[in-house]
Design a protein that fits this description.
single chain, mainly alpha, 6 helices, 79% helix, 0% strand
């Protein structure tokens, strides 16, 4: 179960990153180019937030079944003194939850706004901020050999 969730979490992260970059670039182009808000803009925002929701759900499930998290909570005080353990127990989860909230707040504000330029600006700001938080919360420096770009283990 753990390896399957870890593999799915690894795959969905690419959907989140790609969708986030696409919606941010389109929103920036729409804002600066004063373009109309289209159904595609709306749908891509939905894809981004839905991918984030899926990733959050997988991450929460991983949090419950992860042997690393279990070991961290066995001696939480000591784990907070170890950078990598603190990152996974606290910082990664907290930044990702904040990113999901920012993206959803942005999507809600976009849907309530009528003017296209304002919609694009809000999409660029909120989705861009969510993307920055996501990039900050990705475990780039921690054991890169143990964290391949594509993890495809199911058991």
């Amino acid at each position: 179960m753990y390896l399957l969730l870890l593999s799915l979490h690894s795959i969905v992260r690419w959907v989140v990153l790609i969708a986030g970059v696409v919606v941010f670039i389109l929103a920036l182009r729409g804002w600066l180019g004063k373009r109309q808000w289209t159904r595609l803009d709306d749908r891509l925002g939905l894809v981004f937030t839905s991918a984030l929701d899926t990733q959050l759900l997988l991450g929460l499930l991983l949090y419950v079944v992860s042997p690393l998290i279990r070991a961290i909570f066995a001696d939480f005080g000591a784990a907070m003194g170890v950078t990598g353990q603190r990152f996974f127990a606290l910082e990664h989860a907290l930044l990702m939850v904040i990113a999901v909230v920012v993206a959803h707040v942005g999507r809600a504000r976009i849907r309530r706004t009528a003017e296209a330029t304002v919609r694009h600006r809000q999409a660029a700001l909120f989705f861009g901020l969510a993307l920055v938080l996501i990039v900050l919360a990705i475990p780039w420096p921690f054991a890169p050999a143990a964290r391949p770009l594509f993890r495809l283990q199911i058991g």
